[in-house]
Amino acid sequence: MAASTKRRAATKFSGFTGEPGPGDVVIIGAGLAGLFTALKLAPLPVTVIAAAPLGEGASSMWAQGGIAAAVGEGDSTAKHAADTIEAGAGIVDPDIAQLVAEEGPDRIRDLLAYGVPFDRDLEGHYILSKEAAHSEKRVVRVSGDAAGAAIMQALIAAVRATPSIRVLEGYEADDLIVANDRVEGVRLIRPTALGNGRYAFVPAAAVVVATGGVGALFALTTNPSYAKGEALAMAARAGAVIADPEFVQFHPTAIDAGIDPAPLATEALRGEGATLVNSNGERFMLAIDPRGELAPRDVVARAVYNELNAGRGVFLDCRTAIADFEKEYPTVWGHCQRAGIDPSKDLIPVAPAEHYHMGGIAADANGRTSLTGLWAVGEVASTGLHGANRLASNSLLEAVVFGARVANDVRGLLPHDRVGHFVVPHRIPGSGRAADTASRREAIDRLRAIMTRYAGVQRSGKGLKTALSELKVLSAAVVNDRVLSNMLLAAQLITAAALLRKESRGGHYRTDYPNANPALQKRTFITLADLEAINEKPKKSHCEPPTLAPCGT
Ligand code: SIN
User: Fold this and answer.
1) What are phi and psi of 68, to 5 degrees?
2) What are the backbone dihedrals phi and psi of residue 53, each rounded to the nearest 5 degrees, phi first?
3) Domain 437-550 class?
């Protein structure tokens, strides 16, 4: 049997022994970032860890808008970078924004080569959508609102056809193995075998984390249930620096029909003229921002939140703006049908839902983290691209731009087993335990309720302190469940950083500090030790994020 055939046979999985070939690059996560990185690493041997069958657990599959890239007439990479910087509310790294904008068009061409059928007109030009805070029509799409699914289908086919890539489906990573001052592998568990101690240890030449976001930590989210933020916790426990965890983006128009996760009604609908109305029939956005429904996402999310809090329902009215809904927006049409809504005749009930995490494992322009042997790519990474607020449709772009960069970097460094990693310019400081007899499911529901109530669209110092102490109680009650511990730790990192940032900026809004503070126009860098300091010495948590290094010590 040829070596490549042997590798592919292993993907069948039933005979998995926990022994990938020596020298594999292990990629945790099989969304766009993970699969694109794996393809770009070929023919280096790669093992991809996927908690669910390929395509089923990844947010990328659900992306509706598309990929932002400066490929339209009159557009430029400088304009794209400027819009990214503007949306990020003062803390985007301009060099990162520029490199992402510049490399975007080439990555779109890569996707075309993998067979992604982007929408084009009769002359072959891309059909581009416009979304909030973009100065140009710039969002490359597929079949209207089906970009994520189409891109993922093309990449899954490419991955299945690449002999150097082995995919382990049905395993979840719950810990990083650190030895000799570097990340040397990953501990896996089958979610169904949770708690019975059946682990697999996977050695790795390099570990690339591509696990996506944190939506499942919130009661209302547009993310799949696999987006649990666990890699933040795994990395933090191993000593990695986490950046900007307080910056969470809430999408204003999740379809509010009691479905978990909440289906999305893409912003492109508002880009085409769909309006937001409350239960009194008032188009409330115009009184809040001259850009109306296309104001920045955080502004619209807060406005929707306030209407709902005031007891008025909020609805997306697409009835006149979208001529042929089923044809133009088949994904949203399907979601509406399942919820018993006909968007060509009915208003769509909406609510803000956790959608994207701007924060993540601190990573440089090549995806290197602060830990030797560990890279991060996609939503789980925080490179400084998004700042406090991500520009719409920059996330699939980020996944492919940094996927290519990480692959390049890893390929250049192997087989050397020691690599210099990202040195974080400055850090902030900051552990937690207590008792609860609730079942696992109850604990997760509680966690999600805490995060939505206290660390959601609107936050306050009092609420965030309550959240931290409740999360500590839940954490202390966890026995033998690393996955749940990871979720709770990720939630604490988000909450602690939100407590420390005493201002409002981008997706982070504090009712007790409703304005931006120019002195805090800096990114947050936080470690597990910092969180422990915050939890143990709550009275010292008044220090300001950018200068926290000496605080509490
Ligand atoms: C949307 O289609 O509204 C979401 C796009 C994005 O979050 O980038």
Assistant:
1) -75, 130
2) -55, 145
3) mainly alpha
Q: How far is CA 67 from the centre of its chain?
A: 15
Rounded to a whole number, what is the distance in angstroms from the first to the last CA of the chain?
A: 60
> Could you tell me the CA-to-CA distances from 509 to 77, 124, 201, 237, 315 in Å, in that order?
30, 43, 41, 28, 23
Give the C-alpha separation, 498 to 461, whole Å.
8
Task: State phi, psi for 268 to the nearest 5 degrees.
Answer: -55, -25
Radius of gyration over every alpha carbon of the chain, rounded to an integer in angstroms? 22
Cβ of 268 less than 6 Å from ligand 1 = yes
CB of 354 closer than 6 angstroms to any ligand 1 atom: no
3-state SS track over 275-342? EEEECCCCCHHHHCCCCHHHCCHHHHHHHHHHHHHCCCCEEEECCCCCCCHHHHCHHHHHHHHHCCCC
- Is the domain covering 249-352 a CATH 3.90.700.10 domain? yes
For the chain, the structural domain boundaries read: 249-352, 437-550
In this structure, the strands spanning 172-179 and 182-189 are antiparallel
Span from the CA of 355 to the centroid of ligand 1 (angstroms): 9
Q: Residues with Cβ < 8 Å from 106, sequence gap 6 or more?
A: none
CA torsion angle for 534, 212, 411, 383 (degrees, to 10)?
-50
Note the pLDDT tens digit of each residue in 467-525. 999 999 999 998 878 889 999 999 999 999 999 999 999 999 999 999 999 999 999 99
pTM of the model: 0.89
Is the pLDDT at 433 greater than 90? The verdict is no
- Residue 7: enclosing H or E segment and its boundaries? helix 3-10
Q: Is 190 in the active site?
A: no
User: What pLDDT does residue 144 have?
Assistant: 86
For ligand 1, atom 8, the nearest C-alpha belongs to 393
